[in-house]
Design a protein that fits this description.
single chain, 5-stranded mixed β-sheet, 9 helices, 10 strands, 15% strand, Immunoglobulin-like, Cytochrome Bc1 Complex, Chain D, domain 2, 3 domains, alpha+beta
Length: 382
């Protein structure tokens, strides 16, 4: 077959794949209008400035085209020989200045509103980790049970390895979505624990960088119940594309019930830190934690992906000093891919996963770690 024919066949094949129904790519050419007042104001401002720019382009390029056609050499046009015109210079200075002022007035109004996070009814701290989000509902009362949890890509290995259908929620679903009530001003305090992330929900017109050591504020009032999805919008590392944001906006009564249930969970978790667990209970819970948190780096059989992610099977650390093993999970290893899980997991979860890895993958230390021992080491590290 001739090379040119092969090229055309390749192009036709690529086009067939590109436009097949299996590709769930977004073809939107404009920003979404959104479901909040600030998102609609942002959209309207964008469209207003866009059409002004279109009008300016039509006038400027229209004048250029008319001049090119009507003052061409073939028509006998002779170039004028003048040096400067004060009147023209004043005109082309004043007109752009006036246009910029007219653009600045609506833009300033929208920006001022977008940055006004005062008088919020709910405050949520959003912390970015590689590669998950932590949501911490700030308490209004010191006696109130604190609600905080981590949100990660649900069934991460199945999604990343293309084992799930590529529908509209592909790589955009999480295990623990953020829940907020509708018609309530919610302020987000966005920061990061490691590298720069960006918390972004397009339907809210909300995007803010999460920077270590800094807190950036954004807010929203969602008017319609629904599930709204976003992503980390900053290149934050190897799994940047697997760090979605999912927000459930619900009626106030449903939110109150959800929040009360989360408070009960937090209370139970705190009380369980003093409970004594059996080996079977710990192994069962530890396997669940491992499959959710550790399996991506260390693999289902504990062989890891050396050198970045070392094997747990036969590891000198896992089979070595117990306290050192626990501290490694709590504090992580700076400068490596091993994150600190002291705040990401509860003492019960940490105790369970340490017990699990020290008695799985061919490791047989026989160690049973109790949550109270882990809690003591966490407090010592703080």
């Amino acid at each position: 077959m001739l090379p040119k024919a092969k090229l055309w066949l390749s192009l036709i094949g690529a086009a067939t794949i590109l436009f097949s129904t299996q590709i769930q790519a977004a073809w939107e050419l404009n920003m979404p209008r959104g479901v909040t007042q600030i998102s609609r104001d942002t959209y309207d401002l964008h469209m207003q400035i866009l059409w002004w720019c279109v009008a300016i382009g039509v006038v400027v390029f229209g004048a250029m085209l008319w001049s090119i056609i009507n003052h061409r050499k073939s028509k006998g046009a002779v170039a004028a020989t003048f040096h400067e015109s004060t009147k023209v210079e004043i005109i082309w200075t004043i007109i752009p200045f006036v246009i910029l002022i007219l653009m600045a007035i609506p833009a300033t109004r929208v920006l001022t509103e977008a940055y006004d996070s005062s008088e919020s009814e709910i405050d949520i701290q959003v912390t970015g980790y590689q590669w998950r989000w932590e949501y911490r509902y700030l308490r209004k009362d010191s006696d109130e049970e604190e609600v905080s949890f981590y949100s990660i890509l649900s069934t991460p290995r199945d999604q990343i390895n293309n084992q799930l259908p590529k529908d509209e929620t592909y790589l955009l679903d999480v295990d623990n979505p953020l829940v907020i009530p509708i018609n309530t001003k919610v302020r987000f305090l966005v920061t990061s624990n490691d590298v720069i992330h960006a918390w972004w929900v397009p339907d809210f017109a909300v995007k803010r960088d999460a920077i270590p050591g800094f807190i950036n504020e954004i807010w929203t009032i969602v008017e319609e119940p629904g599930i709204y999805r976003g992503q980390c919008a900053e290149l934050c590392g190897i799994e940047h594309g697997f760090m979605p944001v999912v927000v459930h906006a619900v009626e106030q009564e449903e939110y109150d019930a959800w929040y009360a249930a989360k408070q009960d969970e937090a209370r139970v978790a705190r009380e369980m830190a003093n409970n004594v667990v059996t080996m079977s209970e710990s192994l069962e819970a530890g396997e669940q934690v491992y499959n959710t948190t550790c399996i991506g780096c260390h693999q289902p059989n504990g062989t890891g992906l050396p050198p970045a992610f070392p094997a747990l099977a036969g590891s000198s650390v896992v089979n070595g000093d117990l306290e050192a093993n626990i501290n490694l999970l709590i504090n992580g290893v700076p400068g490596t891919a091993m994150a600190a899980f002291g705040r990401q997991l509860t003492p019960v979860q940490l105790a369970a996963v340490v017990t699990y890895i020290r008695n799985s993958f061919g490791n047989a230390t026989g160690d049973l770690v109790q949550p109270a021992a882990v809690n003591t080491l966490i407090q010592a590290a703080q």
